[in-house]
Amino acid sequence: MDLVLVQAGEALAGLLAFWSLIHVPDDAVPTVFSHFYRVLRPGGPLLLGFHVGDESRLKTQGYGGHPMNVYVHRRQPDQVTTWLHDAGFTVEAHMLLDLDESAPGAILFAHRQP
């Protein structure tokens, strides 16, 4: 996951998190979203991309066959929308990607409520 440390609150004009939360367990996602809220300016946009599904699986092989041990979490857009709302975001739009593929995705566009 990409990590940007921001000391002062409300410092970022916008935030992009494309597939950077797929390794964060469900119980930690609300905390991550609360930090997103803290660092974004009021009205600041958030563009979030993630795998769609209902399961978590252990990935033991990376690109090129390299060994690894990391969980990949898939989530339903409604659950992610609820977590965002609970953290103080308004979801403006969402798009589902490649629903017929083995790894469908979703993109949510939200903004921080003032």
Describe this structure in words.
The chain is α+β, with helices and mostly antiparallel strands. It has a single domain (16-112), classed as Vaccinia Virus protein VP39 (Rossmann fold), CATH 3.40.50.150. 19% of the residues lie in helices and 36% in strands. The protein has a 4-stranded mixed beta sheet, with helices on one face. Strand 1, helix 1 and strand 2 form a beta-alpha-beta unit. Helix 1 (29-39) packs across helix 2 (77-87). It is globular, with a radius of gyration of 15 Å. The model has no long low-confidence stretch (mean pLDDT 90).
Please state the overall shape, judged from the principal axes of the Cα atoms: globular
Biggest beta-sheet profile: 4 strands, mixed
Strand content: 35-45%
Question: Portion of residues in helices?
Answer: 10-25%
Oligomeric form: single chain
Rounded radius of gyration (Å): 15 Å
| Strand element count | 6
Q: Alpha-carbon distance between the termini?
A: 27 Å
Strand order of the main beta sheet, please? 1-2-6-5
Which residue ranges are poorly predicted, with pLDDT under 50 across at least 5 consecutive positions? none
Average predicted local confidence, pLDDT: 90
Task: Fill in the CATH topology.
Answer: Rossmann fold
